[in-house]
Specification:
By secondary structure, the chain is α+β, with helices and mostly antiparallel strands. The protein contains eleven helices and eleven strands. Strand 3, helix 1 and strand 4 form a beta-alpha-beta unit.
Amino acid sequence: MKEAFEFCEATAPSSTANLGPGFDVFGLGIDLFYDTVSIRKLATKNGKIKIEIDNNAKVPSIVKENSASLSVMKFAQKYKIKDDLEIRITKGVPIGLGLGSSAASSAAAVTAFNKLFKCKLTDNELLDFAAEGEMSSAGVKHYDNVAASLFGGFVIVRTFPTLRFIKVDTPKDLILIVCVPNLLTPVKKTKLARSVIPKAVPIEDLTKNLANACIMVSGFFLQDTRLLTNGVNDIIVEPARKSLITGYDKVKLNAILSGALAVTISGAGPSMIAFTNSANDAHKIGHSMEEAFAESKIQSNAYVCRPSSSARVTSKF
């Protein structure tokens, strides 16, 4: 493992997870917001990490509580890298709103670190280290958002019996409308959102969700937006979480009435995401979602976007 650079910077996109029935399995990178992480090697070799956070972003500055630095720390420990490091994080992905904020930081961090030290990790190894960062926000190591931020597009992640992911091309006509409410979310919001999910479900419900997930995967493989959106229907996790989102039912109804092919919670929420294949309908759908939140006295912003490309190195020397 030959050291080649003193500095490396990488950027990674926002993401949406679950996509309805694909809880902890499906992720989709979205070309909307981006996090940038730079890592600089310092002259000393004590294995210490210093964090700098731009834009006064309200993210933890303690190494074990920050997703980017936690991922890097685990990476460095595994490969016995002792260089002191300065990590600078520029947040572009909104925090705590269901758009993979912690995952984007982790994905950018491991991408930069891997290049900085020429580790040449496999994609699976990169994914595993990026997922370490999710321990800081969710309390568990999960892979859907980080896989989507790392590799872009639609990803399917399996963790048993071994970790494996599959990236699938997205239909060229797939358009996403992400509506982000201006809400204060609790600390460890993802952990809270996971706590309301039922610990046991009837086999009939599990079967219905599995069938919908299969429809979605078929739609992605066949490049058929209408088919994949036909499967965006979750009867297990979303019903448990919708009470955490004021105005959820009205937002979903408005979007459907305005032409959306499907609507669901983005990750753990409170952002919501609608799907369409009509550029003409996209802005109308977004406006209708904003109006629905406004009826609950919640200001929101709707964005029209497409699936993203992967995390990438932007600078190195």
